[in-house]
Structures are given as structure tokens and as C-alpha cells.
Amino acid sequence: MTDDQEQIKIFLDSIPEKFQIHEEEVIIEIQKEYLDYSESFDRGVLTDEQIDKIRQIIFSNKTPDEGKKKGLTILAHAGTISAYKQISNYYESADGELKQWASLALQECRMFLESELSDENIGFISTGLGGKKDKLRVYLLVLPLDIKSFNEQQHKIIENELNQTAKELNCDIESFDFQKNYVSLTVLIPMDVAIANFIDNGIKKCNEFGDFVFEHYYAANTKIPDKEEIKEIIEIVRNG
Description:
Number of strands: 5
Helix content: 40-55%
Radius of gyration: 22 Å
Number of domains: 2
Shape: elongated
């Protein structure tokens, strides 16, 4: 390992693991825009002076958002420790769409740094709901059978059985939302576990206490729907 690679290894070891899988929620449209823009040009070598000039550009209040996005992506493609630090500094002070853009640039820059330490190309996975370490965040919604309402006892069964299923499959349930006409949850699922494996098994376990959970369900990793969207989802799940 060269001296430069050793410095990269030490630096990467100091970065929090939240950037292994993209942990944050990033709007799908922003992800697509970033990936399309990123793929439009190749990697480049930047001097420290050039990196500092880009730093001045992205931190300037006079720079339009499109200019900041371009600067962040150029830094990401530099794939150096110095570039990563500048993106990280910007990320800490940014908000809204630019913060999401900077988080993607951080992940891509880290990918290039890690590629320097191996002979393989290293990629990253980013979804609307993000993830944590080696797990992706998924939103799930289950319904009562025959348009009946869930009662408190059934809510408890769902909570217990899905928690047990999660434990067996190394999944982490982050939250439940118990309603009479549906139960929704967000869960972190390992990349080598199929979503259907988790939720189908969970529903099957619940229905061992009496058939009361509808076999069809809704799953997404793009966003958490609002109340109006949930009404539409329920209609689609029930009627196709």
C-alpha cells in the first residue's frame, strides 16, 4: 500500500458509517438529477488551489444553486480527502435540496476514495427513504381482512409478530403507526433479505391468531405517503 493509500484508509476509517448506505431521505427527483449530471462527465484531477476555488464558489451567496450543484459534483469526482472535507463542510451548513445534493456528493466522493484501495469499482445505493449501514429503509402498510377494522388486541398481535419476524431476519423496525383501517411501519431490511420474505412471513404469523390481516400489502422505499395518499393506496391494494 502506498503512502497515499494509507492516508486514504486512515481517513475513511474516521468517517461515520452512516454513509455506507445512503442513510438520509433524498427525494427521488434529486437523486435522478444528480446521477444524470454525474454521469455526464468523467473524473478529473484537481489541485489544492482548484479545490479551494470551488470551495469559495459553493460557499458564496452570489452563486446560484445550479453553480453550487456543479461545484459539489466536481469535488465528488475529484475523489480526494481534501475534496471530501470541503463537501462535508458545505453539507453541515446547507439545507433543503442543496443539503440532499451535498449528501449524494459525499457518498460518491467516498466511493471514489474507497476505489483507490481496491482493484474493484465500488458503488453506493441510494433510495428515497435511505438506509443504515447494510440495511435499506422500507415503508410498509397492511390492511384488515374484508374491510373490517383492527382492534387493540389485533394491533398488539401485529406489533409482536412483526417484531419477532424482524428479529429472525435481522431487520430493525423503527416505528409503527396503528390505525383502525391500517397499520403502517418503517423497517430497516438487510440487502440480502427480500421485502416479501419479511412481510409475508409476518402476515402469516399474525393470521395464525385468526385470519384478520389482508394478504396483500403496500411496500415502498421512495417516500412515506401522507394521509390522502394512504387513502389512494388502500383503494389500490384492495381493488387492484
